Known about the structure:
Low-confidence stretches: none
Largest sheet: 5 strands, mixed
Strand order of the largest sheet: 4-3-5-14-6
Structural class: alpha/beta
Shape: elongated
GO molecular function, one term: DNA-binding transcription factor activity
Order of helices and strands: HHHEEHEHEEEEHEEEEHEHEEH
Number of helices: 9
Mean pLDDT: 87
CATH topology of the largest domain: D-Maltodextrin-Binding Protein, domain 2
Distance between the termini: 69 Å
Domain HTH lysR-type: 4-61
Strand content: 15-25%
CATH class of the largest domain: Alpha Beta
Radius of gyration: 24 Å
CATH architecture of the largest domain: 3-Layer(aba) Sandwich
Protein name: LysR family transcriptional regulator
Family: Belongs to the LysR transcriptional regulatory family.
Organism: Billgrantia pellis
Amino acid sequence: MKPLRLDSLEIFENVVRCGGFRAAALGRGVSSSAISQSINGLEEALGIRLLNRTTRSVAPTEAGERLLERLGPALHDIRTAIDELNQLRERPSGTVRINAPGPAADHVLCPLTFEFMKLYPDVNVEIVSDAAIIDIVEQGFDAGVRFGNQLAQDMIAMPLGPALRYAIVASPEYLRKRGRPDSPRDLLQHDCIRRRFPGGTMETWTFEKDGEEVEITPKGRLTLSSAHHERQAAMAGSGIAHLFEDYVRDDLEQGRLVELLRDWKKPLPSWYLYYPSRRHTSAAMRAFLEYIRHREWGPVSH
């Protein structure tokens, strides 16, 4: 019988949690073939198949389910024990994994993380930009970033950055050709740059003025899924874009873009960092939370 490698048990748990060899390999920074070899070695050592593999999916067998049921708590206890040792160190160490939408990563989370890492050189940080709503625990993240009203009840949340503001923008060239909209409903007569979310839904644009709220589903020939590409399209005169102010502040100051309907801006909440309330928090994650907790967020720029 081939000897059992204990690290292969953690790799097995990673594969099941991530739903496949490739995702587990990316999370561990190794090749898919290395993950496959480890699983093959584990199955050979135990003398039983743990995973059913198809070209599209990986799922645990009955034996795999039984092993995983006992393995999860055991690995949790091991990680907790290691982290308790880390608390005896003068400086926290470990890895913090965070899932965040692109705009939050671009303008708040990444700059914050760069500063944090200078103060805590033994802490590694992994940021995955993803607009999809996911189960951060199931996907192996320590925390996620979303709007306040998108958080599950069993999560602890803290503000991350100042309140947000959208800007409706277009290039001077586009406005010379098509004119300026005077109200949100006028946008329905314009070429708007639309956004499709990862789940397939189209973004709606919401406005507010003097207690009146207007929501429109913009029309246009161009549909994108990235704020960076929407900005590029607006700069090229392809239509009117709906973007966070942070993306276009310099363009507005330099005259490359023009802001429209400024008196129709609807107040928005800030981003929120959220993390599980019922899960052990590592020393590295606690240091990151404390760093954020002591930050003072100034008012949004106008």
